């Protein structure tokens, strides 16, 4: 990087100069003043000082001829690429509707960005026509045609020739080509217009690399990141950014060894990814909507598990939003957790932003909510890389106001201003976003040690990597936990297992108290495998069993029921079974509960009253049973603790009045932060969910602790016409 | 914040103007050109457009009178506070040595910073005497005396009067006061000098808050953050930053409601903390060496668990380095993990950096290694807060070169330049640092939801919070795991428990094969409770047992020994016991192994050859036994898998030659990344550690898998004079 070289030079020269100046200054001074003598003498004695050939000065300025002309530190300007000729490429209108509702990749996109920069004084161009001298803050970078040779660095000759041919096609041919293409359009100016953004992007990067500007913004169209080596697509003809990156790597092998391309366009940059998929010199990171490949460009290439191949393996990172509607919180989270750590470890010499603004709030194609200040914050973070060698190249973005405001916010960061505050910094990222980012980190931790640190160095501690062989060799934790429950219940309460005709389930799925067959009163607990509270070793990432506990919320109820001498059936529904991919805890709980009812309870001679206690997902089995059998003759009450789990509605197959009955005779406790409540303080629950109550706390264990008495009292009341003990 | 108001105003005015200009431009154009007609008409039709009262323009500039004079966007300068008068406060010399080796809080500190700014052209002051006009980049902020009223906002009248009195003390009184103070000194100029940094800090903050500068740097001394309301200390007389913060909160109640003070001086800012300990308007975050309170100021107030009190609870955060020698990696990690998330959630209106540079590389008091570029990166990150309203106030820092270089790097960020690259971005933070930061996050997650997200929302999932009551109610995981091992071994291999006379240990600590009493050959496995590979719920932070497995590395060896029909003793040493605070796994393993030897093995009638297999910390018991008993008659080989665990040396109490014997007859497998190896590729291990070998991988389970054959072959060889099966 030669960037600051000239400056450093005359600054070195200056240092000596000023040093001598000071020496004199000080001599004169020490003869005059007295107050300072102590310090001054000290200073003259102080050895370090001689070494440095400089010394302290007086507070009284000594007049010396000002000779600091060469000394001024003039920060470099920000480069700007803009050329009205890029507006010639436009869609040929074939219907009146296209007048009303023009194609989103609209020639005015670049103009509106240029205009807002002028309106805010970042550039001075009263005519808004793209003049040469645009003021003190930004430097005009002339746009030029890219040469065929440059374009062929990424694209095939066939593709180049095809685009070239469009300039001589007649209207019909153009319309046919437009028809055939994958959401692209052509007119006779397309070829001419398409060579300009390529040339512009190259020049914008060059200016940064050569230190003529501190960073740059290329306001160009048509965009490039969907253009693959062989084909145009997604409004893109040539792959602007990819070609620029290849060009820089080729022409500045010494100063630029690694380039990072950060693509925050809401679509996956399939073209750019393909151009460097096997190249370890370019780290491509893209944040985009994916939605199981349904979102454009709609191929699995955009999936988060596409991490590059050959030498390029580990140098491709897709952060795939499973839903639309993401915004600042999700992008900041992604930058904090993935982009910045990875980038710092990669140590790029140049950072290029493939800057589509279609994730911006207000863009009807992206349907996301990234605010201008969030674009500012992301730019600010990326500016801290590569000594600030940053080039921003426009890609998509179709709401003319949104792209203008977003680009302005980015430009302000480039010229050195701080970012605005985020409008809503307190919002949590969506759970779906946290989950996908977690997946990305775990996958990429194969290649990046910064992520190992986040997840510990332990070779493997993630389910994804726990394969059959490991399981066969080792032991599922949930089984150990259930065995421990069996031990406790059989030792303390003489519980025994109750046989099930479901071979895939562990034998100890259902346990019962010895008195259950004779009991008048039976409590049936259906629960998930209890939670574990564990401490992860921050270095190794493993769980230390000696500092972890099994938090078994059912035990309290069983103790209580045992004191009351009730009969008890305890049902444990595993959330997953390693052996079975298609296993569903919900279905299983429904089958098991129905089975217990049909094959046991119905035949218990003395049973007169039953209470259900459901904990976690397992509770869906209870709701299902109540809807499918008429249990009202014996079932007196139903208690469910669902924490964060999904609500289950009672679907009355037997009798419509079941819903009312369920509402009257049930308590359903949910976490304070259960999604059902949203922000509304007092939302009125639907009857079909039972009497749904919002707890003060979160977490199964906490809400059970909070509502244990309320629950048991409710059960006792429902039994009250009977004596409480038998 | 009025900062950009004037600009925004005349920009609004401008927008209308230019809109009309464009309208004309375009009309003219659409009559002329043809190529563009399509687009242009479209543009005129397009409804959104009318709404906006603007439209597209031609690529041919239309000459209009330039009227953008008012429009220029001139970024604000960076404020600079410097006044030579602050150099009057100096130590009275009492011995010749103080000439040779002056007091570290040396008057030249501020001068050297001012000088390097001038030498690099950030300011223009050839005389280096603190002139008014210092050029285009920085704006001189005049320093003034703080008033008594201002100082009393933080300090007691007694303290103020005492400092005032120093101006009239005679030499003896000054020396006595210096003597009595907690590392402070006084001369007759101390009072005068000490009022200036206070006034300077106030003015530096004011200039930012009033939008006269974009941010500011106060190059002031004496420093302030150790000065408590009642007393001077640590070179500090008045609490500059605290007084400035109080002043701003008082005088700008509308625009400044919350202030964040980030103190990266290597010492804890006890004075600043005390001033706002019960105040929720000020978030004080300090990164400092603590070392169990031994490092200056040496009180527990600097401990990480001091989080504020009353209204201020949760608004104080101490990040305490347990060791010296920390540097960029640790500071960047702390900023990423703690400082920035907390700051973003706090949403300050002003950020003040208590900017000591004594953590800088080269500072002999701080003994840490923060580089200038790291100070740049930290400043850059903080600049993204509070709309960039940032004020940097000098505190400590005693290596004149280091503080100058560091301050220059900070100043460049302030004027808008990007930070330099970190010299060693790949270094991992020290484990001690990762651990303390983990502690801080867990503690602060009580108050900050950004941390809950990092650790899941589950009410509690950390050992710290797992108390007796929880344990009594619930079930230790390690016990469940051992019970599962017992089940497996007793079912598959008919193992039984071997009694121990250690009531505190679980009954199933030692298991043995049925044939062990008669066996000629016995394998003794001593291991820690097996690891768990688990997936943490990224939202809830709980462990899902159904997707977790117990990775039991011993099982392979037991199966192998069983096939060989060897006798087997399996010893499980828990790492911790909830019930016992003073429990030590190391001591226990030593006691148990010795006990087994003295009370069982010695009396086995047929035993002729024994092999030990140690896994994890439990292996120390084996090494201990070999050193304290002469077992060589029967023990043929020793295999240890220690992964990351600490090396244990054999201390031969019986016979010196034991070490050689141990080295010949043992294999000790360690992780690839075991600290012992450091960076050295082929470090020659010490004999006392046995034959220490470095594996290709990390993690108990992986190294056992890697070396299982080598281990068993080694045992068989050591048995070879005997038949391999009996």
Automatic annotation (TrEMBL), chains A, B:
Q: Which residue intervals define the domain Histone deacetylase in the entry?
A: 103-413
Task: Quote the catalytic activity from the record.
Answer: N(6)-acetyl-L-lysyl-[histone] + H2O = L-lysyl-[histone] + acetate
Q: Mind naming one GO cellular-component term on file for this protein? A: SHREC complex
Q: Which keywords accompany this UniProt record? A: Chromatin regulator, Hydrolase, Nucleus, Repressor, Transcription, Transcription regulation
> A GO molecular function for this record?
identical protein binding
Instruction: Name the EC number(s).
Output: 3.5.1.98
Where does the UniProt annotation locate this protein? Answer: Nucleus
PANTHER family documented for this protein: HISTONE DEACETYLASE, HISTONE DEACETYLASE HDAC1-RELATED
Which family is annotated?
A: Belongs to the histone deacetylase family. HD type 2 subfamily.
* Protein name per UniProt: Histone deacetylase
């Amino acid at each position: 990087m030669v960037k600051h070289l000239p400056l450093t030079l005359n600054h070195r020269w200056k240092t000596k100069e000023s040093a001598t100046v000071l020496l004199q200054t000080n001599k004169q001074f020490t003869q005059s003043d007295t107050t300072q003598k102590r310090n001054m003498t000290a200073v003259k004695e102080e050895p370090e000082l001689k070494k440095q050939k400089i010394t302290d000065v007086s507070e009284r300025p000594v007049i010396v001829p000002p000779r600091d002309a060469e000394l001024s530190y003039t920060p470099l300007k920000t480069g700007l690429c803009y050329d009205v000729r890029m507006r010639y490429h436009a869609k040929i209108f074939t219907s009146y509707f296209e007048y009303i509702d023009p194609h989103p990749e609209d020639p005015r996109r670049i103009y509106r960005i240029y205009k807002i920069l002028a309106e805010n004084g970042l550039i001075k161009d009263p005519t808004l026509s793209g003049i040469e001298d645009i003021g003190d803050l930004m430097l005009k970078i002339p746009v030029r045609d890219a040469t065929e040779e440059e374009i062929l660095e990424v694209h095939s000759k066939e593709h180049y020739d095809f685009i070239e041919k469009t300039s001589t096609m007649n209207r019909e041919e153009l319309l046919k080509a437009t028809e055939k293409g994958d959401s692209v359009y052509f007119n006779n100016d397309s070829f001419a217009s398409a060579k300009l953004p390529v040339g512009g992007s190259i020049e914008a990067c060059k200016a940064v690399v050569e230190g003529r500007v501190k960073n740059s913004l290329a306001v160009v169209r048509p965009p490039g990141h969907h253009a693959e080596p062989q084909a145009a697509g997604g409004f893109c003809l040539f792959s602007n950014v990819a070609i620029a990156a290849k060009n820089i790597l080729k022409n500045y092998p010494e100063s630029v060894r690694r380039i990072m391309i950060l693509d925050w366009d809401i679509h996956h940059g399939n073209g750019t990814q393909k151009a460097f998929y096997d190249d370890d010199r370019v780290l491509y990171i893209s944040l985009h909507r994916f939605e199981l490949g349904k979102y454009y460009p709609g191929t699995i290439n955009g999936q988060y598990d596409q991490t590059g191949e050959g030498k390029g393996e580990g140098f491709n990172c897709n952060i795939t939003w499973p839903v639309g509607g993401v915004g600042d919180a999700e992008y900041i989270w992604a930058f904090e957790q993935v982009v910045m750590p990875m980038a710092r470890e990669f140590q790029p010499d140049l950072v290029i932003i493939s800057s589509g603004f279609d994730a911006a709030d207000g863009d009807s194609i992206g349907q996301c909510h990234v605010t201008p200040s969030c674009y500012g914050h992301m730019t600010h973070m990326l500016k801290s890389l590569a000594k600030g060698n940053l080039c921003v190249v426009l890609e998509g973005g179709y709401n003319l106001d949104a792209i203008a405001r977003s680009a302005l916010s980015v430009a302000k960061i480039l010229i050195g201003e701080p970012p605005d505050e985020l409008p809503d910094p307190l919002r949590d990222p969506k759970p779906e976003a946290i989950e996908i980012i977690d997946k990305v980190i775990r996958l990429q931790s194969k290649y990046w040690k910064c992520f190992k640190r986040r997840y510990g160095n332990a070779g493997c501690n993630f389910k994804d990597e726990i394969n059959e062989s490991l399981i066969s060799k080792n032991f599922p934790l949930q089984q150990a936990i259930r065995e421990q429950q069996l031990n406790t219940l059989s030792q303390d309460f003489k519980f025994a297992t109750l046989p099930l005709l479901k071979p895939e389930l562990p034998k100890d799925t259902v346990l019962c108290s010895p008195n259950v067959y004779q009991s008048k009163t039976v409590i049936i607990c259906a629960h998930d495998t209890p939670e574990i509270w564990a401490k992860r070793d921050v270095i190794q990432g493993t769980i230390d069993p000696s500092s972890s506990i099994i938090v078994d919320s059912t035990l309290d109820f069983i103790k209580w029921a045992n004191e009351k001498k009730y009969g008890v059936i305890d049902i444990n529904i595993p959330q997953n079974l390693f052996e079975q991919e298609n296993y569903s805890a919900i279905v299983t709980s429904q089958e098991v509960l129905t089975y217990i009812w049909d094959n046991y309870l119905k035949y218990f001679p003395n049973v007169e009253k039953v209470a259900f206690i459901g904990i976690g997902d397992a509770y869906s089995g209870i709701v299902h049973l109540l809807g499918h059998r008429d249990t009202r003759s014996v079932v007196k009450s139903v208690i469910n603790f669902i924490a964060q789990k999904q609500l289950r509605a009672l679907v009355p197959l037997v009798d419509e009045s079941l819903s009312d009955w369920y509402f009257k005779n049930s308590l359903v406790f949910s976490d304070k932060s259960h999604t059902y409540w949203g922000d509304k303080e007092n939302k009125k629950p639907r009857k079909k969910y039972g009497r749904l109550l919002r707890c003060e706390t979160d977490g199964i264990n906490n809400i059970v602790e909070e509502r244990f008495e309320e629950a048991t009292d409710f059960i006792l009341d429902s039994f009250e016409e009977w004596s409480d003990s038998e």
